[in-house]
Amino acid sequence: MIFESGRYRELELFALSYEGKEGSVSLLRPDGTCEEKKAGIAGYRWIRFSLQEGTSYEAVFENTRISLAYLSDSDDLMEEGIRLLLTDNGKPPLMAEGIYRDQYHFAPPAGWMNDPNGLCWYRGRYHMFYQYNPHGQEWNNMYWGHAVSRNLVHWTLLPVVLEPQEYLLETKDFRGGAFSGSAWPEEDKVVFALTRNCCKRGEQAPEEIQTVFTSQDMIHFEKESLILNQKPDGAHSDWRDPKIWKAGGKWYLVLGGGLDGYPAIFFYGSHGDALGPWKYKGVLLSDREHKGAGFECPDFFQIGDMCVAVGALFRYTDKNGRYQPIRYYLGKLRENLQSGEDLNGEAFAITASGMYDFGGNFYAVQSFEGMGRRIAIGWIADFYKEHRVVRNGVYGSMSIPRELSVRENRLYMKPVKEIYHLKEQKLYEGSKEEVLLDIPGKTYYCRIEIDGSSDFSLLLGRELHGTEGSSSISLIKAGGPVYVKTVGTGSEHIRFYSDVVQVQSLEIFVDRRTVEVFLNDGEAAASNVFYSQEENGRLETAFVDPERVRHMEVWTMESIWKERR
Question: Which of 560, 550, 462 is nearest to 506 (CA)?
Answer without folding.
Answer: 550
